[in-house]
Model the fold of this input.
Amino acid sequence: MIISVASGKGGTGKTTVALALAVYLAQKEIPLGIFDCDVEEPNVNLFLQSEIKVIETVYVPVPYIHESACNGCGACADICAFSALVMVKGKPLLFPEMCHACGGCMLVCPEKAITYERKEIGIVEEGYRDHIRYVGGKLRISEPISPPLIEAVKKHLGDSDINILDVPPGTSCPVIEAVKGSDYIILVTEPTPFGLYDLKLAVEMVREIRRYQRLLGKSSRSLYGVSCGVVINRCDIGDSQVSDYCQREGITVIASIPDSRELAERYSHGDFVDYFIEQYPDQLESIISHIPVSLSQGEISS
Ligand code: SF4
Ligand code: SF4
Done:
């Protein structure tokens, strides 16, 4: 089962909820994995401190143009939807950072002048702590395209375990790559106008994914068809617009977590997880009670 923890914007407490949930479930001896898909700013293992056992380098293919074979027809630049290939003075010029490795240019080249070479984009590391398996991606500095690395992280998802994904913030391509195939998405927000605005975008994203999953039917990796619930972090600041919106849209608020200076201070020192579990067991139980669980994977219960 795949549970994604996402948020329309950064700084809402997404990693806090993902990690607290993972450690809380692990304390019940439920086998699980936590996957850091926020590969541009991975921080799960800063808090988890799992012992890294495996590090794998991830590469993507990028075109290599053999100038001697090129006739300057421009077909490769015409097909490139990402403007990674442009024609300059009758010659193709490649911007490898913009290449999405779709393979289109190689297919259309009439002279077979394009082959592929591999480019390193980052690493995937795997470690263990108690009952938790950790897998996380780290994107290379200056590398702008993260979805292939997120895909590499997700190749390590366990088929039978609970898989908790810490998703990048926002609603752009890396987020879609991370949440697609999820069974349940926890949307973490805060009760402010910014929180509401980004929550609306995130809810629309979930609805689009659900429509897509229905189209895919059984070919989707998801077992259940994705559903979502909202966690309101720092629920006692701001106003009631987020909860009003959730009520209007029929979206369940699965937990509300009060603002806590102590929690923020502990977070900044890297040791918030145990404190969170100690302070907010009701919220964690409430989150768990709203997540559908496959019988074959064992019921999650308190
Ligand atoms: S592989 Fe695709 S994205 Fe990359 S340069 Fe070729 S056509 Fe463009
Ligand atoms: S499609 Fe092939 S032959 Fe035409 S410009 Fe591109 S590399 Fe050169």
The domain at 2-31+161-300 is CATH 3.40.50.300 (Rossmann fold). The first strand starts at residue 2 and ends at 6. Residues 170 and 251 are 19 Å apart (CA to CA).
